[in-house]
Amino acid sequence: MVRVSDATSTFVQESQEDIQKLNNALLDLEDDPEGSDAIETVFRVAHNLKGNFGVMGYTTASNLAHAIEDLLDCIRDGELEVTPERMDLIFNGVDHLAQMVAEISDTGETNTDPEETIEAIRASIEDGESAGGEDDGNDADTDTNTDAVATDRKVPLEDLADDIDREALENETNVYRAALELDDSGSPQVDAMFVLDAAGDEFELLRTVPANETIEAGEFDAVFDAYVTAADDETDRGSVEAFFDDNRYVEGASVTDVTDDIVDELTADGDDAGDSDEESGDSTGSSTNVTHSSKEVESIRVDVEQIDQLYNQVEEMVTSRIKLRKIIEGSDLVEAEDELEEHGKITASLQDTVLEIRLVPLKKIVGNFPRIVRDISRDQGKEIDFQMEGVDIEMDRSILNELGDPLMHLIRNAVDHGIESPEEREEKGKPREGTIKLIGERERDRVSVTVKDDGGGLDVEKIRSKAVEKGVMSEDEVQLLDDSEVYDLIFHPGFSTTEEVTEVSGRGVGMDVVNQVVRGVDGSINVESAPDEGTAITLMLPVSVAIVRVLFVTVGDETYGVPIKNIDEISEFEDVDIESVEGRKTVTHDGNVYPLLSLGNRLDVPDTEPDDDDMVVRIKDSVRQVCLRCSDVMGQEEVVIKPFEGVLSGAPGISGASVLGEGEVVMILDVDTL
User: Fold this and answer.
1) Has this prediction a pTM greater than 0.85?
2) Hey, which of 33, 191, 242, 512 would disulfide with 493, CB 3.0 to 4.6 Å?
3) Do 153 and 279 form a contact (C-beta atoms < 8 A)?
4) What is the pLDDT of residue 94?
């Protein structure tokens, strides 16, 4: 990544904020086309973006912002109406602006060519009939016979031979080339993605010309080829052509069987498909679905008073350090102890200030969620009212960065598989419009973030059946689970009850990753659901980074940390009531039975034979009803927990590690997953 100047960095940050404001204001305008406040906000932000791009010398981006501003001006003056198609065109332009800002952040310059979008916007202004306009400069392409256009897009036979093997052809797998022309909707890349998603469900999609990345970026002429295979005996060229003709986004389709043509090329060495991509025109920009990705919080704004406070505390710490050095040199231990206590107070105050500075509002990472919901629901023909509450609550920046993808996954699942279609909701006696809420709440040092929908809810019996089918549990075991325990099964790796996995993904797919990420930042997840009433998934998270007080325990020659907040009682082994239930040791306390886990066995620590001098640590019932057996207890201390990354991330029983003052690395136990 090229390092950009401070001025460019500030420009990028302000532009990202403006683009988010523009997206949200456009959503307000779409909901209430007659609302004067929404159109004024949209126009003002677009005007500001145009000016800032121009001042910084990014002429291409400024031209695009100018075109958007002009279109909005026509809407403001009543010359054009707010239509879904026109809003799609504006959103597409905003996505291009966001992509260009991202490029500026990375390299200091833009690579995206938005000329086609600018022309479409200008055409929409001129004819005032549709978002893409009927004279968008592409008539020569769209009026051309599909076969003629597609002829120039043929993939070299040796490349197709690389995409399929001889065994497949011997099994009478046919290869078809579908030359497709899209309806003129003003958003060809969106329409193309729907066509390709449908084709991927019906056939095996070998490749597209131009390449998929080019289509996603919208850098094509609404005409493209899709090469597919079909092993079904009932599938022939006519049925493939009928499939594409029936797609509502396709204006014309011509299908040819190219099976015989590639048989002779099957054993040839295939070359890269780059030549064919070049023939159809290389993409000058990358995908514009930037509003659908999670971004890290790269900068924070700090109050001047906090900076002054931080400076004063550092000044006090330097003074205290000098005093300590002189006292130690004079060997006055009493005075040294007093000064050390004062030094500790300064350090604690400094720690609080730094943690306060790192706090960032939740809206920093969820600000683009309304746009995500709008795009997915529009694509799927659903009606959804998306609401966000409590997004001004603040959390540590590092936790927010981890939280972005899990929350986005929950939101996309709620739209895709939580909320039913308007027709299905009407059949159930529910309003056509579904509701999804994202609610943030703070309770002392913890924050809860809930994603709640009023959709179909989780099917308990279906989850039970799937658990048995996948070998997660036996039939007898799964029937003993209550509903809340059944819901927890969706966090098992690869678990999903969704038969058809869409591009947005099925509820349950990836939920294991959500669970790992949340637990990795010392959080937890709770799921509540009811048939036809909806589902609520709540993430419980710490406000600040994991600086916690831990109890150090030894297991053989190794030392581990257990968070004090999870511990209820510490006892000597000989003082606890040990029993054996079905071959497993248990501890009875106040009438409750606690399984006794040997840390030596659970952590595979060598040379840890049971001893009568062992200690027993009883965990709080609210965390997990269990007791831990260890060799000894070594005291407690505040530590900074660093979660593991890479292959160690999400390891059960371990929440992270801490480096002690002597440089010793100690693993911190996650008693909930041990």
Assistant:
1) no
2) 512
3) yes
4) 92
